[in-house]
Amino acid sequence: MAVPVILMSFPSNFPFDGCPGLSHRVGQRGQFRYTTVELLVDKAPIRPRVETVVGVRIEAHERSLQQVVKAAGAKCDHAARLWHMPKRLAGIVRLANRIVAK
User: Fold this and answer.
1) What is the helix (H) or strand (E) element at residue 94, kind and residue range?
2) Does the predicted model carry a pTM greater than 0.70?
3) What is the DSSP code string of 23-76?
4) Hey, what long-range contacts does 70-78 have (CB within 8 A, 24 or more apart)?
5) In the chain, what percentage of residues exceed pLDDT 90?
6) Residue 100: helix, strand or coil by DSSP?
7) Where along the chain do its domains lie?
């Protein structure tokens, strides 16, 4: 489906400065300046994600792995010998197979 393109020409002294969504681009050869504007097409409410926290088993000798998840915000539960972190983080660092069921 072809999308129609509407080109509008404005004088060079048109007061666009300070407009959000406005940018200027220079052509590859530096001969032309293109002024573009951002177009709002839709507005929809954002539903926040529900962050599921899971317990992940990381052994005591895996110090480097512990440092990685700690830097990403995981918390150690010494009594349960688990690291609590968002399920999404466990997937990113490839620890989904170590998630302990409650």
Assistant:
1) none
2) no
3) EEEE-TTSS-EEEEE-------PPPPPP--EEEE---TT-HHHHHHHHHTT-EE
4) none
5) 52
6) strand
7) 53-100
